[in-house]
Amino acid sequence: MDQLAIIGGRELYGELPIAGAKNSALKVMAACLLTAEPLVLDEVPDLADVRQLVVLLGNHGVICRRDGARLTLDAAAISSTTAPYDIVRKMRASFNVLGPILAREGHAKVSLPGGCAIGARPVDLHLKAFEAMGASIELEEGYVLAEARNGLSGAEVEFPFVSVGATEHVMMAATLARGTTVLKNAAREPEIVDLADCLRAMGAKVEGDGTDTITIHGVSSLHGATHEVVADRIEMGSYAMAVGAVGGELLLTRGRRELLGSAAGVLEECGLTLKEEVRGLRVSRWGTPTVSTSITTEPFPGFATDLQAQFMALMAKGTGKASVTETIFENRFMHVPELRRLGADITVDGRTATVTGVSRLKGAPVMATDLRASMSLIIAALCAEGQTMISRVYHLDRGFERLDDKLRAVGALIERVREDA
Ligand SMILES: CC(=O)N[C@H]1[C@@H](OP(=O)(O)OP(=O)(O)OC[C@H]2O[C@@H](n3ccc(=O)[nH]c3=O)[C@H](O)[C@@H]2O)O[C@H](CO)[C@@H](O)[C@@H]1O
Ligand SMILES: C=C(OP(=O)(O)O)C(=O)O
């Protein structure tokens, strides 16, 4: 397994390109299953998760061609309506092929995704919504068997709490349902708006995305389209926090302040300067201290759970105490013991961690435990004295495109130590 070696203390300067969002690309890729015509996606990040979804789509008969950041997906015929356990278990987002296949073919068999390191992550809201739309759902040997032989019907679905995955999943399926579907208490994440934009380009009738009520008027078929994936707000927020932790100035190209939601204001409270420019978001911190600031994770526009671990690394050298409350996932503090190995002072009480700023962090061997936790270790290592070796970086490769190249190009001392080296 590859490792990353980082020597901390170097400020970051220059331009850093922000890729298309993983959490959007994976959903718009699944949307290709809704049409027999090619879907052309631009700014698709080159990530392990994207490659994994290409394998799954190939299993369904989709012809996928990559040319740089452009991915063309041609689902002229769906050759298999089964998404097997061996592929789905490797990546949760692959569960979202169920809705499009069900909507287009009238039946689908998709492995349950199971839990993962950060929490149990059930899919009951997805399945209840499909039932409300007239599908019969059975669970058999770890698979969801969904059937709607006469097609799905529009329905009113009120989610008891905000679910990004369920909102996206039902929105896709509803595009081909008979009649109108209304989603209440829908998620408002930028990735939802991006998916809605892609679906509209394909001929779907979607309204209200970006608000908590989304209306989808079903149509009989969708057509091919070209769509550019929205910039990755988590990659953008992570590099902004790296600047906050170690100092310097980066132009995050394609970045936009509004994509950060409330995290933008939080970063400013912490002492960062954010400036929107034509080409992207400029973030800087020059010599001023990192002000400890408390946050609670919430659905968008609240502070993103996917930035919580990175924020704790930023707070590790803050001026005082910061409390960090995680409300989305029940087990998303696995980075805490690893950050402590670097000298961070963090205590955890239930869903809340308290980070007391220390004057220095010191490099140490640490282990990445999940995708965003890995990024928190990178940020802490960038501002730690001496060398940090981070193992299990395959977690990072799931969601951060060319991380070591991008950081090296802006001045970080970071090297990938290859498994076979
Ligand atoms: C609201 C929120 O911030 N969602 C995050 C969630 O999206 P993701 O789509 O993975 O998860 P959801 O938004 O669906 O989950 C929100 C909460 O609802 C629960 N749940 C969800 C579906 C369901 O059928 N039943 C159920 O109980 C989940 O376990 C979780 O506690 O993880 C992604 C990856 O980290 C993040 O990018 C998203 O920002
Ligand atoms: C946990 C994440 O991804 P996934 O939902 O694919 O597990 C993430 O993007 O932080």
Automatic annotation (TrEMBL):
<feature type="binding site">
    <location>
        <position position="328"/>
    </location>
    <ligand>
        <name>UDP-N-acetyl-alpha-D-glucosamine</name>
    </ligand>
</feature>
<keyword id="KW-0961">Cell wall biogenesis/degradation</keyword>
<keyword id="KW-0131">Cell cycle</keyword>
<feature type="binding site">
    <location>
        <position position="306"/>
    </location>
    <ligand>
        <name>UDP-N-acetyl-alpha-D-glucosamine</name>
    </ligand>
</feature>
<dbReference type="GO" id="GO:0009252">
    <property type="term" value="P:peptidoglycan biosynthetic process"/>
</dbReference>
<keyword id="KW-0963">Cytoplasm</keyword>
<protein>
    <recommendedName>
        <fullName>UDP-N-acetylglucosamine 1-carboxyvinyltransferase</fullName>
        <ecNumber>2.5.1.7</ecNumber>
    </recommendedName>
</protein>
<dbReference type="InterPro" id="IPR050068">
    <property type="entry name" value="MurA_subfamily"/>
</dbReference>
<dbReference type="Pfam" id="PF00275">
    <property type="entry name" value="EPSP_synthase"/>
</dbReference>
<comment type="pathway">
    <text>Cell wall biogenesis; peptidoglycan biosynthesis.</text>
</comment>
<dbReference type="GO" id="GO:0008760">
    <property type="term" value="F:UDP-N-acetylglucosamine 1-carboxyvinyltransferase activity"/>
</dbReference>
<dbReference type="GO" id="GO:0008360">
    <property type="term" value="P:regulation of cell shape"/>
</dbReference>
<keyword id="KW-0808">Transferase</keyword>
<dbReference type="GO" id="GO:0051301">
    <property type="term" value="P:cell division"/>
</dbReference>
<feature type="binding site">
    <location>
        <begin position="121"/>
        <end position="125"/>
    </location>
    <ligand>
        <name>UDP-N-acetyl-alpha-D-glucosamine</name>
    </ligand>
</feature>
<feature type="domain" description="Enolpyruvate transferase">
    <location>
        <begin position="9"/>
        <end position="407"/>
    </location>
</feature>
<dbReference type="InterPro" id="IPR013792">
    <property type="entry name" value="RNA3'P_cycl/enolpyr_Trfase_a/b"/>
</dbReference>
<feature type="binding site">
    <location>
        <position position="92"/>
    </location>
    <ligand>
        <name>UDP-N-acetyl-alpha-D-glucosamine</name>
    </ligand>
</feature>
<dbReference type="GO" id="GO:0071555">
    <property type="term" value="P:cell wall organization"/>
</dbReference>
<comment type="similarity">
    <text>Belongs to the EPSP synthase family. MurA subfamily.</text>
</comment>
<feature type="binding site">
    <location>
        <begin position="22"/>
        <end position="23"/>
    </location>
    <ligand>
        <name>phosphoenolpyruvate</name>
    </ligand>
</feature>
<feature type="active site" description="Proton donor">
    <location>
        <position position="116"/>
    </location>
</feature>
<feature type="modified residue" description="2-(S-cysteinyl)pyruvic acid O-phosphothioketal">
    <location>
        <position position="116"/>
    </location>
</feature>
<dbReference type="GO" id="GO:0005737">
    <property type="term" value="C:cytoplasm"/>
</dbReference>
<keyword id="KW-0670">Pyruvate</keyword>
<keyword id="KW-0133">Cell shape</keyword>
<dbReference type="InterPro" id="IPR005750">
    <property type="entry name" value="UDP_GlcNAc_COvinyl_MurA"/>
</dbReference>
<comment type="function">
    <text>Cell wall formation. Adds enolpyruvyl to UDP-N-acetylglucosamine.</text>
</comment>
<dbReference type="InterPro" id="IPR001986">
    <property type="entry name" value="Enolpyruvate_Tfrase_dom"/>
</dbReference>
<keyword id="KW-0573">Peptidoglycan synthesis</keyword>
<dbReference type="GO" id="GO:0019277">
    <property type="term" value="P:UDP-N-acetylgalactosamine biosynthetic process"/>
</dbReference>
<dbReference type="InterPro" id="IPR036968">
    <property type="entry name" value="Enolpyruvate_Tfrase_sf"/>
</dbReference>
<keyword id="KW-0132">Cell division</keyword>
